[in-house]
Amino acid sequence: MLSRLFPGLVLLCLGLFLVFVLIPMGIRAPGYVQPNSLSPQDLPRLLAWVVVAVSLCIIFAGIFVGGQEGLSLGAMSPLRGIVFIAAFAGLLLLLPVLGTALTVFLFVFGLLLFKSRLGPLRSLVLSILFSSTVHVLFIEIARIPLPNRLPDLF
Amino acid sequence: MENLGASLDLLLNWQIFVYLPLGVILGAIIGAIPGLTITMAIGILLPFTLFFDPLAGIVLLLGITKGGLFGGSISAILLNVPGSPAAACTMLEGYPLARKGRAGEALDTALWASFIGDLISVLALILLAGMLARFGLRFGPVELLALVIFSLTIIAAVSNAGLLKGVIGGALGLFAGTVGLDLIYGTERFTFGQPNLYDGIAFLPLLVGLFALPDILLYYFRPAKEAEIEISGKPEQRGRLSRANFRMVLPTILRGSAVGIVLGAIPGVGATPSTFASYAIARKTAPDRKEFGQGALSGVAAAESANSGTGASTLIPLLALGIPGDVITAMLMGAFFFHGLAPGPNLFQDNISFVYALYVALLVSSGVILVVGRFGVPLIRRIVEVPRAILFPMVIVLTVVGSYAISNSMFDVWVMFFAGFVGLAFRALRVSEAAFLIGFVLSPLLEDNLQRVLIISRGDLTVFFSSGIAIFFYGVTTLVVLFQLALSLSQIFRPAGRHDSAISESASRAETDGRRSTS
How many angstroms separate the CA of residue B225 from the nearest CA in chain A? Predict the structure, then answer.
């Protein structure tokens, strides 16, 4: 029962957060609003109330109507997920520091070792090939100003 | 004549000759890989197309869409794994055919159905979009507001997540679209002093995060055994579709194409429901209907023609009225804007040579599908078998590079990163991401026109119903919502039939496979 109500409750909390916290904090009302027109707060507030009203309907449907789905993402292994998120965040944090080629190499090599069955040597070769391709294709040819530390290293 | 000459100039560009076939090939490969989807591919590649000429960039994306619609059938027939939810019916009939040693016939049927469906769909686009655009020129703020409300409601009503979760998705999308400086007063909304948000949340990083990352996150969150899709059986690809069988399936293909075109042009319906509707009709009318469930060529033909029939017809409301009907057209709308083109009636007035060139490119790409399907299937099949553990790290790097390339800013990359978790939360709560994205895209249009109507009204709310066109849109919106509510109630009380449950099982398997690796 609770699992069926959970999505509605989460959405209700989100709607209430929008109405009572985010909108008052995020929008400062202008000093003068033209008559018969929307102030900057009006549409967001209306939409937030729609979220509140509809999530109440979802909770109502969860109580009285069968077949409502709860939270569902299938079997999960949180530890694996956390390792991946850490690697991903590491990629974004290290990109400006180590440059594109080295960061991409470390990220791809790490993930290949972590999840694929290629083995260390083939993972290493593939990571070097891919990071070099990214560097040549996007930095040298397409001239996208991605962080590039190779000139500092060599 | 002057416009035709200008269109020819646009078309005779080396980029078109490279990117048009490349798009179809990439689409066919991506559509065939159960872990990747067309939306993911477009999300990843869209930022890179900004460096191309407008026509070349848009043609590449359209090629991916068209190739992807066909590509889903390859893995469905050969590997019993639908590359996309829309290929579920193809799998239901195509794989049993392959098990009987008729994989070549099934693939040929899928190919011809895709080609004919797509071609007719492009012709329908050419015929109808201009007419609809001329009609669209009569729209003022009252009609545009009604059209936006109509589109959002229909998209929410027919979304897989159900009406309520569709409405929530649309409302949150509209809300997210209000971030940035207010259009009239210039007030900051939800920027919290961050200058990167003055123009609102960047569309492309949001798109990439919402549609490419959740599947990858889910893949890495799953236990090792569950993460890879098991590919069962590798039937031989032999035999070709005979002329007699082609004549047999042709009426089904034409019927399926018509279903795809009509349903595809309605905002929010898209490929999957069109495929199921066409399959259901063929089950009752096809000459080989007794073989349905055990491998019927007409089943493959019905599903694939309807699937590809939606390819160009979803562009009708986008090009003619500036209203995206599904996620892919919402993405394409973003691509148009980035290239300085505004889809809608004015596109036909200001850039008609571009529209003509686009039509020609779409027609040519239909032919490219035929060539790719005829000669590329063995290669595509090999690529399909590359494990996602190898593909996904590279896909992630491309999402990062693509998001960075839009404005050379790490801020956009972080937006993409967080949008990925928002997309994951939407999956968990079963909130419609499609409705969210379309709400986000239509938010400025809704607010702008609502503001104008309110100012025009001077307090008189009857202005909202002062136009016949607006009343028509409000009427249809109400009818669709009532119909959807009645349908939901009837489904609660009606037990599913045996074959229906087989279809829905395969559809849910397609969706699960898709979600397991992608959606």
Answer: 11
Partner-chain contact A96 B410, CB within 8 Å: yes
**Distance linking the first and last C-alpha atoms of chain B:** 45
- Among the listed residues B133, B46, B55, the one whose alpha carbon sits nearest the alpha carbon of residue B356: B55
SS3 for B294-359, per residue? CCCHHHHHHHHHHHHHHHHHCHHHHHHHCCCCCHHHHHHHHHHHHCCCCCCHHHHHHCHHHHHHHH
Residues in chain A: 154
Give the CA distances from residue A15 to residues A9, A45, A54, B416, B500, in Å, rounded to whole numbers and listed in that order: 10, 10, 9, 23, 37
Q: What is the pLDDT of residue A25?
A: 92
Measure the CA–CA gap between B184 and B167, rounded to whole angstroms.
26
Residue of B213, B215, B401 for testing the chain A interface, max A β-carbons within 10 Å: B401
* Residue A73: per-residue pLDDT: 62
Sign of CA dihedral B431, B433, B438, B444: positive
Task: Provide the token pair at A93.
Answer: 């944090």
The residue count for chain B: 519
DSSP string, A51-75: HHHHHHHHHHHHHHSTT-------S
B119-159 per-position pLDDT tens digit: 999 999 999 988 888 888 888 888 888 988 888 887 777 66
Q: Which two tokens stand for residue B160?
A: 């897989």
- Report the predicted TM-score, pTM, of the whole model to 2 decimal places: 0.79
d(CA B347, CA B351): 5
> Could you tell me which residues come within 8 angstroms of residue B403 by beta carbon, excluding any fewer than 6 positions away?
B47, B204, B205, B208, B209, B412, B413, B415, B416
CA B273 to chain centre: 12
Q: Which long-range contacts (CB under 8 A, 24 or more apart) does A82-87 make?
A: A83/A114, A83/B220, A84/A111, A84/A114, A84/B217, A84/B220, A84/B221, A85/B217, A87/A111, A87/A114
From chain B, the residues in CB contact with A76 under 8 A are 221-223
Q: Which tens digits make up the pLDDT trace of B64-99?
A: 988 888 888 887 888 776 666 677 788 888 888 888
B375 touches chain A (CB under 8 A): no
User: Are A69 and A108 in contact, with CB atoms under 8 Å apart?
Assistant: no
User: Which ipTM did the prediction report?
Assistant: 0.89
For B294, phi then psi, to 5°, come to -110, 5
A81, B221 Cβ separation under 8 angstroms: yes
- What is the percent of chain B where pLDDT is above 70? 88
> Residue A89: which residues within 8 A CB-CB, separation 6 or more?
B417
Name beta bridge partners: A27. B189
Taking residue B230's Cβ as centre, other Cβ atoms within 10 Å add up to 10
Of A18, A10, A12, nearest to A44 by C-alpha is A18
Check residue B187 and give left, alpha or beta (phi > 0: left; psi -120 to 50: alpha).
beta
Is B387 in contact with A116 (Cβ distance < 8 A)? yes
Amino acid identity of B423?
G
Q: Do A58 and B165 lie within an 8 Å CB cutoff?
A: yes
Degrees, nearest 5: CA angle B46-B449-B471: 110
Give the DSSP per-residue string, B405-427: HHHT-HHHHHHHHHHHHHHHHHH
CA-wise closest residue to B434 among B276, B324, B292, B344: B324
